[in-house]
Every structure is written in structure tokens, then in C-alpha cells.
Amino acid sequence: MFVAKMKRTLLRSGFTLVELMIALAIITLLTSIALPTVKNTLREQQVSRSATLFQSVIEEARARSIATGGGGGIIIDRIGGRGPLGRSQAIRMRFATTPAPYSGEGLGDRGLISVGFNPAGVTLDTLTMLVPGEASQLLRSARDIDANPNKRTLINPGDIIQLGDNGMPAEITGIGLTATSDVMLALQRIEPNSNFRRFHNQQVQYRILRSPTPAIAMPTELSQGAAIDLTSSGIGRYGNEFSPMEIEGNYIDTTALPFVVAANRSQVVDYGSIWILFGARGEVSRVLSSQRVGGALQLQELPVLGDIHFLVSRSGELKVEPNDQLEDTDGSPFADDADDGTTPLLNNESIWVTIKSRNGEVVSSSWTNPFVNQGQMIPPGPPTDNVYQSSRIRSVIGAARTAAVEARDLGSN
């Protein structure tokens, strides 16, 4: 009897099919309600984790540079050159190192400077330095370049040479051999007003600051779904020197660079990496980026006129087509949220990672709405005008950076 009663109790404690179906429907409903929130949270965490990772890699690069006496840093690689989107995003970082300066093989080695003059005695831009062949590193570099002009060697075009006791800087533009196996360096001024005339036909001491190279270390990549938006990154409050549109000076013409995509990969324009180098005390010493010089992209020195700002955002949502870039004609970028609101520059999930140029400190700032009075932010103008479009984007960049920094300083981030 007791066993029969237990069986009846166990049977009554179960669920009917209807009850199970109702419970399953409730669970499904709750899941469908919670899923978008969970997805958004995970997506925001991707950007946040990537910004934290990016900041830590920069800090490690700075620490390495201090430990080695300066010259080290970080290389930020664009995704690729096949289209505007890849040229405008970066997800990979590498460490950089700089070889020790070269001043010849012996104490007080010198080179013979020759400055070009026209018949009227006016100084030309031609500047050369002849170095005896026993300067073995220069000789080896000249032979390597002669055998393969595209090969990187001990000393390369683009390296900086300091001349004389005061270290007047010039850029090495060519390295070649003479008939007597001496080395001939072609040089050009870095500063327009530099006067090398006093060095003409003089033997002067030199010091070559060699270009940085990637360190032997595994690269680091951001979390999947996040990227560095280079269209909004640059130096100072308004700078966007890393943007392909700014490099080309073209924001609207889809038939010209950087919007065209070459069918042949050999014709693809590589917009290159961005190099941030630190000095011996951890300060930002140099910033290098690809710039167009005489129709060719070259790694050029950028003046460090302010802090360096990078915008970490969701990947794949950059607005790189001309008609997508803050395209409205009114004074407020938020006037058409359906279009402009999805660009990382105006996305509240984005995070600014800033390198302070004076001391190399790295800080992050959450995106903050910069538009208190939306109607008066930016003067309206034609979105098809290249100068207006460039100015408009730089204005929004400046407003967004300023708002984020002020919020961080006030403790709102």
C-alpha cells in the first residue's frame, strides 16, 4: 500500500506536456528579449578590450624604448591596400627598434660635402657627401643597394644624417658607388631654410640616424570585431594625417585615389604603416607615416605638434565613401543619425586612445557627445566641395576629441 501511494505521488509531481510547452515558450520569449542586450554588451566589450590591449601594447613599447636608451616604439599596420576600408583600418601592432647611430668606423671620420650652385652663385638644392670606401657599413650598404635597390640594408635612403658640430639635419635620398669605390650620398634639406653653403668643399663630421625597423617579436592583434579608425586618427586637436583621404587630399572624387581599387595587385597603392617612436625619457620622439611625394608614397616624418590620438571602434563600419562622410548640408552632424550616426567618429561605443607627446603617457577617453548646440556646430556648405568636406571632418574630429578629453579630465569617463 505504501509503495502504491509513493507511485501515485511521483506521478502527480511531474509536468504535463502543456505545462512543458508553456515553460519552453516563456524561456524562448525571455531569451529573445535578452539576446540583443547581451549582443550589444559583448560588442561594446570587444571595443573596450581592444582599447585596453592597444594601450598596454603602446605602454610596453615605450618601456622597451626607455630600457634601450630610446628609439623604440610601435608600428600600427593598416589591414591592406585593396580598398578604402582596408586602407582606413588597423588591427595589428608590432614593436619597433632603431639601430644605433653610425658615425663611421673610426673616431672623427668625415665626409666631403659638395653644394650645388648655379652660374649666378645661388645655392641649389643639390647636396652630396663623398665618404671614403673604408667606411665599411656605408660601403656594404651601397653595394647591397646597387645589387637590389629595393633591399633594406644597414643604411638606407630615408635615414637622417646630422652634419657638423651642430648636427644640421638632412635626409639621405640616395646611396651609390663612385669609380674609385668611394660612397656618394645624395642629401636633401629637411628644413627649408637650412643653409649648407658653409659646408661646401669641407670635410665634416657626420652622424647617421638610421631608420627604425620591426623588432623580432610576434605581432599583437585587436579583438575580432574591433579596429583602429585611421580616418579619424592623427596629431593634435584636429589632425587626421593618417587618413587615406587626407594623404591624397581627396575626399569626394571616387574616380581617383584613395577610392579606386586597382584590378592588378602590383598596382595596389600601399598606404603603409604608422610608426610612433619614443625617446630615452619616454617622450614621443618621432612619428612616421606614408605621405605622397612626387607621385609616390614614402614613409615621411610628421611634425609632433601635439598629442597623438587614435580612435578604437567597431570594425567594418567606417564611412569611407564620399557620400557617407558627414554628408548632410546643415550645421549638425547628428541631423541624420541614420547615416552619420553609424560612423565611429560619432559612435558612443568608440574610445579614444591618446599618447601624450611630451612624456609618452597613454590615456583612454570614452566617446562623449560634443554637440551642446547642434545647430551652430559647423557652418553649412556644399558636401560636394573637397575643401569644405575636409574642413568639416576636421572640425568634427576636433570637437569629438576635445569633448572626450574634457570629460576624462573632469572624471566623467
UniProtKB/TrEMBL annotation:
Region named Disordered: 322-341
Highest taxon above the source species:
Bacteria
Q: Which residues cross the membrane?
A: none
Biased composition annotated in UniProt, kind: Acidic residues: 324-340
Coiled coil regions in record = none
What protein is this chain from? Prepilin-type cleavage/methylation domain-containing protein
Origin species = Rhodopirellula bahusiensis
